[in-house]
Amino acid sequence: MLVSVLLSLSCVAALPQQDVASQVLATFDGGQIEAERFDRHLGADARHQQSGAEALVHILRLQIVSIEAANLGLVATDKEIDERIAIATEQIEAAGMSLENLLAGKELEMSDLRKLIGSSILHEQLVRHDLSLSIFAEVSSQQLEEWSNNKLNELLELSKQAPPGMALDAPPFRVSEQELGRVMRRTMSKEELQDRLEQMVLTVALPKWAADNKMVLSDDILNDEIEWRRKRVNENPAYGGATYEGLLEAKGMTVESVRQSDELRVAGYLRLLSEQVMPDSFFENLSEELTQRYDNEHGETRNVGWILLRADDEKESPLDLNFDEAKEELLALRDRIKTTEDFNDLAYDYSEDDRTRRRGGMLGWIHHYEKGVTTALAKAAFSMEGTGIYGPIKIVDENPFQPLSGMALILVKDILPRPSEEEFQDAIRRGTHRDLRQSFLEGITLKSVFKPSN
Fold first, then answer.
1. Are 224 and 352 found together in one domain?
2. What are the pLDDT digits (tens) for 397-420?
């Protein structure tokens, strides 16, 4: 159990930090981001992040043990801690590792480890006390977990009403957003931290860019962004018919909280930036190649589903199908399809594409080119003249990351023609946001400790 504590407890970040709050994490033209400021930024948005929920649980587990033990006058002696560390060291070395390397990997000092082990000992003492167990009785992981969860649930519910600047304010249990953010910073991956840092820098730098260029982020732009997100949720079968508002509610958010968020404002500023980079005149003299690319990515859309049977020219086992056998099976299935519901039911029962099978085979609304959709499938779906069920059609895609070989029935359920010119241009601009974000950050010479320069 001690080894698992050392290997898995990311709550070590809740211990007193060794880093200095004024440490500079990032610099960019006209500004910098210090650790303290970044921690507050992370903590303020933590209730809507999985990493934030986990960090709060870690902190509270330690607080609960510390406060409950103090109330009962329980202590973990130096002798008990030394004995546990000696056992842990022996187990770690037997596994071919070293205690020193494990501590270094988690940026811990031996004093931090002693506090962590001491908390573990107190935790066991508290469980024995509450369950009226002998001081010599073994305490199981399940008993420890149940004891903590019984204490945690009420506190986590109270955290939903925490005032600004606090993640929890229920004395004697108090956790500031900065403290929570500090824990998150110590437990998140560098990739996650870089993304969140970039987002924070954009909230600082983009308004200044807009002011310098005399551009105004209007409510209409923010409302358009929300409507676009609502439309995407409604069109995507992966959400199982859920609404945009329903998805937000599951995260403890509302449309109004999104409207007030820095994240939405960044999206709005990127919309303004895209209009500056791609004014209306940009679209007047597009090359034929670029026109075709944009049309494939943002033009006509089709609501598409499929039933896939994997097949190849040669079988690797008797259970495999060749193309002719797969075709015969799909023809038999097609004879059973009278309605779209029939197609969905048969896709659920027979399709061999795991991503869409549980959605009745539906991919949802796709363009001629759609990220994440097999190129051969999209090409086949757009080669059809109208709605209906087509196939069996041979679908082969030699993508080295997601190779595909099989036969498919394709449902073209609905078709939406190319949008109006204004909507078409807006869609193209929106498609550039990720690239614009990166080029903007490069333009302001962002340097971060989470992403060392080459």
1. no
2. 887 777 889 999 999 999 999 999
